[in-house]
């Protein structure tokens, strides 16, 4: 019927009605038509009266704005009101009535909130839950229970979970910006006293297909956009794959026509609310992060692309994963899902099928791969939604429910609120819209049964006068959809269970089965798509069958299910616990095909359970109306509202409510409910109900009938007393088993009952207060008596204490007088004693002073005589010692000179051996020349063979000619044939003999020559090999002897320097003796005599000769060319000295440039004076020292046992402390530029060791500050780098793994990892910062020494960061150390060379200078401002100066 649409056109007439504001219940309208109803609703909406009654039904028009009609104060007004007529219509009143019925009648209650999308169902549900919570708290407060806060807490928790459900279950549609794409049933469990003890949520039909395909002009679920807008912290691979986090970059969010933003909605703020709600339901931060990472993984799954390829070569081909970003997205998603990316790719691109007893793999097409990807994403999203709903239910009820029920009374009923999706009709409707509209049909049928059919049937049964009202029944539509034999859903499930089911087959079966149903229609004209139309109670809807079977199956193939079940995340694996249906093993045992659970069957079972549960409760209906389609607060579209009122059956509800009895009660319950009111008003005894119990089955049927008849008579008597003159339908109707009340009559009786009970409660309260006041008076009297006793005792004790104090005061006065007399006598005696003792002491002191003066004079004289004798004796002895030492030093020098001559002879012999070795090399070249000549002879033999082959060709040609002539002769004469054949045989035999002889001669000649050449070569090789071995042995022996001679030479030179210093000391002592003797005092005041040449043979002469010899000998083979003044700088060798017998691992210079500290393989740490070259201090340890570092006060050494020793520069005291490393400490560095540490604010010291770790120490306090995991191998190089482009100081570390890591010293975190070419890094040096130029910005460069003989250079620019590695081939062997001095780089290598490179320009570099002189590998360098100290593995130290 279209009367509402016709009435919508008559708006002006409707507005002409007066008194719309005074009609809160539409059953009281005078004119029952569409015009009057629309006019009343319009007037009430404009006056912000959005609620209107239709009998027991509440119509709620969405105001689309906030109204001041909500809150606890408003709820109190509706709770305290006597009846509906006392307050305006409100959802609070419906909630309170349902709650009161639940508490009073111990019956479950349900409030069904229905309406289309955007009508305000979700907000209405929130208001109902709040009202029930306040009513529960009020009921417990009246009962004296202290648990009233439990319901409020659960209500707060329930409302706090709304952001979770809205984020994951709501989205923007064409009709609503926050449309719920699922249904929910909120169940509040209450105790007998009305206390809320628990809460649970049931959800229905989540529209998970929207995950992969949102509609045109719509948006996907809110959680995706909240994640992109919020500040979610994701794992690095996920964050990198997500990129800029814009919706346009994700396939699932960027469908054609998709909307990315909602006006007035801040997704970032909503994300914070959702994250807070997740924590509120008990999720830990790690679980919240897992949920967000799973949502991000779903977005990345949508970005996976598939391509068609024929890698198997079978011509069929299949889908394969695309390259580039698709691989990155797959890897990040797989990491979030804790699965192998290759397994996910295989599961999407193929599936395993059983063929008999075997399994075969079938490749998917691109479309099938996309479907598998979308199915996996939808299954993951649905599992996540269900898991969060379970978590919400656990937080709302869980283990606390039982304990709360024990405290407030056993649970007796529940209060349910159903928020179900509204009727939907879009341009393209699919399976989701069919299920939604099917649910609305079922709820409408239940509404019809409750409001129309059930009431009419009950009136007829009870014999109540009743005028039948016609209404639109949708039973045919429900039968057509859910019939078990030929229903739409049944046929759909059957088609899905077929292995080869198609949409066409389903459409054919559906047409055949429903051809006679008037509510089912199919297009008369054939179309490209298969469609059918269903006439729903709300209007016709056309459904597109495309995708029906796939959506109804909604199953993943077993490969992906098994893959997800194997995830290491328990939450994720639980999503797919029952995804494959019943147990496979059990199905295999039974040998039967397991039953599939489809979407429609699952939803139908949920819907039947819901309707059955609601049917056994007290039902209350709230119909939500959407005033306009534009969501404007000022518009009221009459056509839209008229359609919604028509769908809700408003006119039929008004008619039946006006002609009916909305309240009814069984006789027993009426007697039990209003017996108290009857007793109060009549003043008699309270009547009792005899029936109403459960009774027995058949044995007590007669007794039960008698009880019911007695209750009927009692109720009739009570009604005549309570409602006189209203029988016969005026106010009530007394039927067979129930009492039926007219509208508002039941409310008036209830109000009278409450007033009566209120008066009785006042009497009870008065008695209770009197008893409490009497008890308080007795307690006060008893307390006053106790107080009087305490006061009297206090006064007696105070008098006793006063008398006791007087006696104590008298004793004290007497004691003071006696003590005064005693003190005066003692003072007089002490004065007399002091005078006598003073006189005796002064007398004794005078005697002692005179005796001591005499003793001191004698002692001074004796000291003077003995001292003079000692000085004279020491002068003579020292002079004799000097002469003796001079004689011994001259003899030792002569021996050393003899050894030097022997060494020169040995060097001459060594040069001869080298010349002999060169001669042998020449002879070897002669042998090679002979070998070359033999090869030439072989080539000549080959030429001879070629000539013989040419002759053979000529002979063959002659034979052919002879054969031709013989054939001609045979034609002339047959007689000569035999002779010719014999002649030919002879020729052939001769030819064969000739060929054999030729081959034998050539082969014999060649083999003979080759054998001779091989024997000659072997003989020459053996001869020269032996000579070469002898020469190598001689050369090795010569090197050993030369090293021994060098060692002895160094020892002699050291001894010579020591003796020279001793001579200087002797001279100094002699000068001191001369001062004591008084000789030469005048000579010292004169000017110093001119320097003269030392006498021949004196120590000074020997030292000068040795220095001249060393200066003229030079060091190494490289001598720089003479340079003009102002030319390029070069290094000059200053001196060399032996500092150890073994390899030197580290050399360091103290900050004052006065000492050298060395660490060598003989397990010693030595300190050398740079000026004298003498060893000042030496320490020997059980472990080898490998690293050194110095500051202004201390020297630090790192050892092979992972310990560190600190030496005080002033006292050279050693303090050892553990570094915490597991292996050898290879390098130490003071990190200048790092934040100061410790109480002394000292520069931190960093250590690198063989375990790959770096540790930061407070070196002054010997305590560990930080422990850093640096490398996968030993750390052997550290360097602090500063420069303006860096902004802050950083530290570089290098090790045997070939990596160079950059550390920020402010926080000690790794910023970059710079890879070289795989060789270990032995040293790192900073080359400083370069100034910006026109074509290049400012930069900072560092250089690294590696095991492969290269120097690697890295460059840092502020904009570009760290650049690529540049390599310079520096040495032929390992580069052990690098040093930077005045814009130059100095490198030391295993090849005994030191090379100088320019550092002011970027690589490649050219070697500027090569320094030689070391006899073995150069292991370490120490650099000052103008000097370089180099130490080698033979224990020698060389000093170079930059000039």
What would your notes on this structure say?
With 1443 residues, the chain is an alpha+beta fold. It contains 33 helices and 48 strands. Strands 1-2-16-3-12-6-7 form a 7-stranded mixed beta sheet, sandwiched between helices. Strands 37, 38, 39, 40 and 41 form a 5-stranded antiparallel beta sheet that branches. β14 (531-536) and β15 form a beta hairpin. α17 (431-462) packs across α18 (475-482). The longest helix is centred in the middle third of the chain and has 228 residues, at 745-972. The two termini are 113 Å apart.
Topology:
Blueprint (H helix, E strand, L loop, with lengths): L2 H6 L2 H5 L18 H13 L4 E4 L2 E5 L10 H9 L10 H15 L3 E6 L6 H22 L6 H12 L1 H8 E2 L7 E2 L2 E9 L4 E9 L17 H8 L6 H7 L24 H14 L4 H18 L3 E4 L8 E4 L3 H13 L3 H9 E6 L2 E6 L2 H31 L3 H9 L2 E9 L11 H32 L12 H8 L5 H10 L5 H11 L6 E2 L9 E6 L2 E6 L3 H6 L4 H8 L4 H5 L9 H7 L8 H17 L2 E8 L12 H11 L1 H9 L4 E4 H16 L18 H22 L9 E3 L3 E4 L3 H228 L4 H101 L3 H5 L13 H15 L17 E8 L5 E6 L5 E6 L3 E6 L5 E6 L4 E6 L3 E6 L3 E6 L5 E5 L6 E6 L14 E5 L3 E6 L4 E7 L5 E7 L8 E6 L3 E6 L4 E7 L5 E10 L8 E8 L3 E8 L3 E2 L3 E4 L5 E7 L2 E6 L4 E5 L10 E3 L6 E6 L3 E6 ...
Helix pairs in contact: 5-6, 6-7, 8-9, 8-11, 9-11, 10-13, 12-13, 12-15, 17-18, 17-25, 19-20, 28-29, 28-30, 30-31
């Amino acid at each position: 019927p279209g009367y509402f649409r016709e009435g919508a056109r008559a708006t002006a007439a409707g507005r002409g009605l007066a008194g719309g504001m005074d009609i809160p219940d539409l059953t009281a309208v005078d004119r029952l038509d569409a015009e009057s109803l629309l006019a009343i609703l319009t007037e009430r909406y404009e006056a912000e009266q959005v609620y209107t009654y239709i009998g027991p039904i509440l119509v709620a028009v969405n105001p689309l704005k906030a109204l001041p009609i909500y809150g606890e104060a408003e709820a109190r007004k509706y709770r305290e009101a006597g009846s509906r007529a006392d307050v305006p219509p409100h959802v609070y009143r419906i909630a309170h009535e349902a709650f009161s019925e639940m508490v009073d009648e111990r019956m479950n209650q349900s409030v069904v909130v229905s309406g289309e999308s955007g009508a305000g169902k979700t907000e209405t549900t929130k208001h109902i839950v709040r009202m029930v919570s306040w009513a529960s708290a009020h009921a417990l407060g009246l009962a004296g229970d202290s648990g009233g806060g439990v319901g409020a807490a659960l209500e707060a928790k329930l409302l706090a979970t709304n952001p979770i459900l809205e984020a994951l279950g709501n989205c923007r549609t064409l009709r609503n910006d926050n449309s719920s794409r699922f249904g929910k049933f909120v169940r509040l469990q209450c105790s007998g006293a009305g206390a809320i003890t628990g809460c649970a949520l049931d959800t229905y039909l989540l529209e998970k297909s929207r995950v992969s395909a949102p509609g045109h002009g719509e948006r996907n679920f809110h959680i995706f956009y909240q994640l992109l807008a919020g500040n979610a912290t994701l794992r690095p691979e996920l964050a990198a794959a997500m990129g800029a986090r814009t919706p346009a970059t994700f396939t699932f969010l960027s469908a054609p026509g998709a909307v990315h933003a909602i006006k007035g909605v801040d997704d970032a703020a909503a994300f914070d609310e959702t994250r807070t709600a997740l924590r509120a339901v008990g999720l830990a931060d790690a679980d919240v992060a897992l949920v967000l990472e799973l949502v991000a993984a779903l977005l990345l799954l949508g970005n996976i692309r598939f391509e068609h390829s024929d890698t198997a070569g079978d011509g069929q081909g299949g889908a394969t994963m695309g390259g580039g970003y698709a691989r990155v997205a797959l890897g990040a998603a797989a990491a979030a899902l804790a699965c192998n990316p290759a397994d996910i790719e295989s599961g999407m691109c193929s599936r395993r099928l059983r063929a008999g007893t075997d399994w075969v793999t079938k490749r998917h097409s691109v479309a099938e791969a996309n479907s598998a990807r979308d199915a996996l994403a939808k299954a993951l999203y649905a599992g996540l939604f269900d898991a969060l709903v379970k978590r919400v239910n656990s937080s709302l009820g869980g283990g606390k429910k039982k304990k709360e029920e024990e405290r407030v009374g056993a649970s007796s009923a529940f209060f349910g609120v159903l928020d179900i999706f509204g009727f939907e009709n879009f341009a393209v409707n699919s399976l989701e819209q069919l299920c939604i509209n099917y649910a609305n049909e079922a709820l409408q049928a239940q509404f019809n049964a409750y409001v129309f059919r059930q009431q009419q049937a009950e009136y007829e049964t009870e014999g109540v006068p009743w005028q039948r009202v016609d209404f639109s029944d949708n039973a045919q539509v429900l039968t057509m959809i859910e019939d078990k034999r030929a229903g739409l859903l049944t046929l759909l499930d059957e088609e899905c269970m077929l292995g080869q089911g198609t949409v066409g087959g389903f459409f054919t079966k559906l047409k055949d089965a429903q051809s006679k149903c008037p509510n089912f229609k199919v297009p008369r004209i054939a179309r490209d798509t298969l469609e059918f139309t269903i006439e729903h109670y709300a209007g016709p809807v056309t459904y597109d069958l495309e995708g029906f079977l796939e959506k109804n199956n909604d199953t993943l193939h077993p490969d992906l299910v098994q893959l997800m079940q194997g995830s290491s995340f328990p939450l994720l694996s639980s999503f797919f616990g029952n995804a494959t249906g019943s147990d496979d093993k059990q199905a295999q045992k039974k040998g039967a095909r397991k039953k599939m659970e489809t979407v429609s069957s699952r939803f139908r079972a949920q819907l039947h359970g819901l309707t059955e549960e609601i049917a056994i409760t007290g039902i209350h209906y709230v119909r939500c109306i959407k005033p306009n389609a534009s969501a404007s607060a000022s518009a009221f579209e009459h056509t839209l509202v008229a359609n919604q009122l028509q769908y809700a059956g408003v006119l039929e509800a008004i008619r039946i409510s006006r002609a009916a009895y909305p309240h009814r009660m069984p006789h027993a319950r009426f007697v039990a409910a209003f017996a108290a009111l009857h007793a109060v008003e009549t003043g008699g005894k309270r009547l009792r109900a005899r029936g109403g119990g459960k009774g027995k089955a058949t044995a007590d049927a007669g007794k039960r009938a008698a009880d019911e008849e007695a209750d009927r008579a009692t109720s009739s008597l009570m009604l005549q007393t309570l409602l006189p003159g209203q029988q016969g339908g005026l106010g009530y109707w007394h039927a067979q088993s129930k009492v039926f009340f007219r509208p508002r009559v039941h409310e008036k009786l209830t109000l009278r009952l409450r007033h009566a009970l209120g008066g009785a409660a006042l009497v009870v309260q008065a008695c209770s207060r009197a008893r409490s006041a009497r008890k308080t008076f007795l307690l006060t009297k008893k307390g006053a008596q106790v107080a009087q006793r305490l006061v009297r005792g206090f006064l007696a004790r105070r008098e006793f204490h006063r008398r006791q104090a007087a006696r104590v005061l008298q004793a004290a006065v007497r004691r003071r007088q006696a003590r005064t007399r005693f003190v005066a006598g003692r003072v007089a005696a002490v004065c007399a004693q002091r005078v006598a003792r003073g006189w005796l002491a002064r007398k004794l002191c005078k005697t002692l002073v005179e005796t001591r003066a005499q003793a001191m004079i004698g002692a001074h004289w004796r000291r003077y005589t003995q001292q003079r004798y000692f000085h004279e004796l020491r002068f003579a002895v020292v002079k004799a010692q000097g002469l003796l030492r001079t004689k011994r030093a001259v003899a030792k020098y002569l021996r050393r000179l003899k050894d030097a001559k022997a060494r020169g002879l040995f060097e001459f012999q060594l040069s001869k051996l080298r010349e002999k070795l060169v001669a042998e090399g020449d002879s070897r070249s002669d042998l090679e020349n002979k070998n070359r000549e033999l090869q030439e002879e072989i080539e000549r033999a080959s030429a001879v063979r070629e000539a013989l082959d040419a002759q053979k060709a000529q002979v063959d040609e002659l034979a052919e000619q002879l054969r031709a002539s013989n054939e001609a002769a045979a034609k002339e004469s047959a007689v000569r044939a035999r002779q010719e054949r014999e002649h030919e045989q002879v020729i052939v035999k001769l030819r064969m003999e000739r060929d054999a002889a030729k081959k034998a001669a050539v082969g014999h000649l060649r083999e003979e020559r080759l054998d001779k050449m091989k024997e000659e070569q072997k003989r020459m090789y053996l001869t020269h090999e032996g000579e070469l071995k002898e020469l190598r042995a001689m050369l090795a022996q010569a090197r050993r002897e030369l090293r021994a001679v060098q060692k002895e030479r160094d020892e002699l030179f050291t001894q010579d320097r020591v003796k020279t210093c001793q001579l200087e000391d002797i001279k100094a002592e002699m000068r001191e003796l001369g001062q004591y003797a008084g000789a030469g005092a005048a000579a010292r005041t004169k000017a110093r005599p001119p320097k003269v040449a030392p006498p021949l043979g004196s120590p000074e002469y020997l030292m000068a000769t040795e220095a001249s010899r060393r200066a003229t000998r030079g060091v190494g083979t490289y001598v720089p060319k003479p340079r003009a003044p102002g030319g390029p700088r070069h290094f000059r060798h200053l001196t060399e000295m032996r500092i150890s017998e073994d390899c030197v691992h580290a050399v360091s210079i103290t900050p004052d440039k006065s000492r050298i500290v060395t660490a060598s393989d003989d397990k010693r740490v030595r300190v050398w004076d740079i000026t004298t070259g003498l060893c000042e201090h030496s320490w020997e340890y059980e472990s080898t020292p490998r690293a050194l570092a110095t500051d202004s006060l201390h020297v630090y050494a790192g050892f092979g046992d992972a310990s560190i020793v600190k030496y005080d520069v002033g006292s050279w005291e050693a303090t050892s402390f553990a570094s915490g490393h597991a292996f050898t400490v290879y390098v130490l560095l003071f990190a200048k530029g790092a934040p100061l540490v410790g109480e002394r604010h000292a520069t931190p010291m960093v250590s690198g060791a063989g375990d790959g770790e770096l540790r930061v120490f407070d070196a002054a306090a010997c305590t560990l500050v930080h422990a850093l995991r640096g490398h996968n191998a030993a750390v052997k190089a550290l360097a602090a780098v500063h420069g303006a482009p860096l902004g802050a100081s950083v530290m570089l570390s290098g090790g045997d793994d070939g990596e160079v890591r950059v550390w920020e010293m402010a926080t000690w975190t790794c910023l970059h990892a710079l890879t070289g070419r795989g060789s270990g890094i032995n040293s790192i040096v900073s080359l400083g910062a370069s100034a910006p130029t026109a074509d290049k910005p400012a930069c900072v460069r560092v250089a690294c020494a590696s095991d492969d003989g290269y120097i690697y250079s890295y460059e840092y620019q502020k904009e570009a960061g760290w650049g690529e590695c540049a390599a310079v081939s520096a040495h032929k062997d390992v580069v052990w150390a690098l040093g930077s001095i005045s814009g130059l780089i100095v490198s030391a290598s295993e090849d005994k060379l030191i090379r100088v490179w320019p550092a002011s320009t970027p690589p490649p570099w050219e070697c500027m200078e090569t320094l030689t002189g070391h006899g073995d590998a150069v292991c370490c360098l120490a650099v000052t401002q103008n000097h370089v100290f180099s130490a080698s593995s033979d224990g020698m130290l060389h000093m170079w100066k930059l000039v």
